[in-house]
Amino acid sequence: MDWKEIYKSKLTTSEEAVKKIKSKDRVVIGHAVGEPQRLIEAMVKNKDQYEDVELVHMVAMGKGEYTHPEMAPHFRHNALFVGGSTRGAVAEARADYTPCFFTEIPRLFKDEYLPVDVAMVQLSRPDEHGYCSFGVSNDYTKPATECAKIVIAEVNDHMPRTMGDSFIHVSDLDYIVETSYPIIELNPPKIGDVEKAIGENCATLVEDGATLQLGIGAIPDAVLLFLKDKKDLGIHSEMFSDGVVELVESGVINNKRKTLHKGKMVVTFLMGTQRLYDFVNNNPSVELYPVDYVNNPYVIMQNEKMISINSCIQVDLMGQVVSETIGLKQFSGVGGQVDYVRGASMSKGGKSIIAIPSTASKGKVSRIVPLIDEGSAVTTSRNDVHYVVTEYGIANLRGKTLKERGRALIQIAHPDFRPMLIKEWERRFCTKFE
Length: 434
Fold this sequence. Notes:
Layout: H1 3-9, H2 14-17, E1 26-29, H3 37-45, E2 53-57, E3 75-79, H4 87-91, E4 96-97, H5 105-110, E5 118-123, E6 131-133, H6 141-147, E7 150-156, E8 163-164, E9 167-169, E10 175-179, H7 193-203, E11 211-214, H8 218-225, E12 234-235, H9 242-249, E13 265-267, H10 274-280, E14 286-288, H11 291-294, H12 297-300, E15 306-310, E16 314-316, E17 321-322, E18 325-326, E19 329-330, H13 337-346, E20 351-355, E21 359-360, E22 365-366, E23 368-369, E24 387-390, E25 393-396, H14 402-411, H15 418-429
Parallel strand pairs: 1-2, 1-5, 2-3, 3-4, 5-7, 7-10, 8-14, 11-12, 11-15, 13-14, 15-20, 16-23, 20-24
Antiparallel strand pairs: 6-9, 16-17, 18-19, 21-22, 24-25
């Protein structure tokens, strides 16, 4: 049968499609700005037909209405990364959090630690061969469709068509809902003087020909501001945003010296403004693959001069990194930080960087601390940490004793908190700080 006939036979409305979800089903929802908004709206509207439906996803960029208190009898969210719209539900125990490395999420589905009943995803329109693209969200979204008993897809004419291992044929979809609405945009963050200073410090560690992993936020964007004099940079990252586009257009990022996927920017998902979505649409220089490939440390390490840049909440004097919790409160998740810290560390000439402002709460709290807060989870172990960067400098912890690590971290802490940190260092090591 011609793919167009198959496509037509599966067309339905969002209201009809979500009726295929049954009580106690596990539903995996497409990630971040790739979430299928119309299907979610229809599911929430149909709430009275469900009991104890488990909704599994990472960051939700939409409303997250299914986590509201009145939804408790109908839905329970299982967060693989806690976002702004779901954080309250997790904090109040109306939703759950499952710790996991980003790269291992597809395995949770494939090996049936989390068997998938329904995958709800957003896709591009099919091409002339009947293949839809996963667009801005490949990550765990594509693997979920490969494991699900039922695949419900929004086909959105605004979704960019991205290259790589980023396609699914219409014959592999069970229900198709045609939609037309703009992809959620993430506006560029405000970059202040502190972020600029951190970005400038990080940029000194970036050599010509390096391959970069960049997170999202003011610090990664600030780093990009200071790379304009670099040459032949590449991208292998779980995601990138608008700041990368400018460096591609100026020729700084050309991927020519990459040792894996030469000439290509490799990512697993995307978030940004329409400028980014237009840039990646049908762009053969940008390839998306599932996260169990892109974030696999063994794959990452094959990029020589691999540099990972991530942020955190706290670093203690031993170099332990807390990135996801504030005490017992689950603030975010592990994500891909450890994947890239380890992959970059194993890379020939690679460097992993934890980049943070020296303070939080408008200067009232030091991010470099004697001891991590009670109840906090260590995200990146002291054994994995290489560089820590603040606006006050760079601390290289590799090969350092505990005493040397503490000294190096104190030297890049905010001056207001150094006396307190020095006092603790002297107590711990029974010697005078010099």
